[in-house]
């Protein structure tokens, strides 16, 4: 994986800009050279074990603590986001930063310590950089592998020279965003939008549209739902309720709450909102006619649907066909959580082995559409208690695959089983390949894809024999490939893919949202 000169300006695939965790190797053993594409990775320098582990820890802890204000200032004042092998460092604790360094062991097969990375970070902070996404871990590993006899400062100056003095912003002006709905996906998108506010010159969450709930304290209750989540934990920051202006102040971001029963009742310009992208996460409308209601509102210009779109609406799986998003599109769909989970893996397998046909079985956590106890439901079986039963139901994900991968049209069937867990699902891909392989060969290929390919943000990889569904809560990937469960017999393969159907999907929606807004960053390194 060559790092030198690897700079470009483009619509950011977040795997290029280092938006997310490169791999969630939960409890994994150290990778061997056989399990990683050694022709593409950067090998860190061997570090001897310290004589005094406690002293070593305290010294590295002090360096990690010193990194926090540097990272924060870069993010806040220059819109420079810093990562370690895809793990974001802004607004992270000392322990989070140290764990991110330790994590590099899973990727490069060796330690990356704060002793090396701090000098690189200091050098970066002293440069007059424009807005960018920089992977501190990868530039540090590249320097350790071949410094070319330069100091850290000289090396960084040469590698990032094209970014110096740049005043090009990711957008010419901040993009207003409105969330239509405040359910599971709406609240997670709120967290992500606030987290990624940075200097405030990219995406700005301006309003949330909901129906007025019965009873008092509507805004207070909605704030509470955002503040505490039984699955995803507490909100990272502060929430202030301003009932006088009907707003929530989220880490300094004022977000208006607009009460309406339909888009026809709303004029966003009344709230100082203009040219907004409306993210409809209600699922109430899924065709052009229904979603077009949002475009009739003053102050709204585009719509993003967080469900599969119908008719001629583009269904986008980020990392696969997000290049289909054009500046003239006004309505696009981010497809479904399951489609986002399976399409990247299918694409990777298809490219290397070919796919004759297959079946997709999803073991899916229950959703709000189901009943907690037996009661009437218009859908088959979904009226039975979600908390007590496995519920066999249908999924359109197998058919929806062809909207992102036309080559698989008519080749896949699918079904779903809803199970009594609140989050994290699994897709089981039973595939007939065009080219035979072995379990080890396929797993090694998928590890390489997860670590070094353009799909590294969509596909994560684990070879731990101990992981279970709750370990993947909060995964920012579209899916996590479970190599221990892989079954291969010649041209027959059964693949198991975990996915956080709430947060992982929300991250994919965010990536689509940035593309729809036309966000562009300089990134280092480019995959």
Question: How many H/I helical runs?
Answer: 13
Unreliable residue runs: 1-44
Tell me the helix content: 25-40%
**N-end to C-end Cα span:** 8 Å
Oligomeric form: single chain
**So what's the overall shape?**
globular
With strands numbered from the N-terminus, the spatial order across the biggest sheet is 9-10-11-6-5-12-13-15-14
What is the structural class? alpha/beta
List the defining traits of the structure above:
527 residues, alpha/beta, nine-stranded mixed beta sheet, seven-stranded mixed beta sheet, 13 helices, 23% strand, globular, disordered N terminus
In short:
The protein is an alpha/beta fold.
What is this structure's SSE topology?
Blueprint lengths: L7 E3 L3 H4 L35 H26 L1 E5 L2 E2 L5 H15 L5 H12 L6 E4 H10 L6 H8 L15 E6 L3 H12 L7 E8 L7 H10 E2 L3 E2 L4 E4 L4 E4 L2 E7 L16 E5 L7 H8 L4 E6 L8 E2 L15 E3 L3 H17 L1 E11 L25 E3 L3 H8 L7 E8 L5 E13 L1 H14 L6 E4 L16 E4 L4 E13 L3 H15 L3 E4 L3
Parallel strand pairs: 2-4, 4-23, 5-6, 5-12, 6-11, 12-13, 13-15, 14-15, 16-18, 20-21
Antiparallel strand pairs: 1-23, 2-3, 7-8, 9-10, 10-11, 16-19, 17-18, 19-22, 21-22
Helix pairs in contact: 2-3, 2-4, 4-5, 4-6, 7-13, 10-11, 10-13
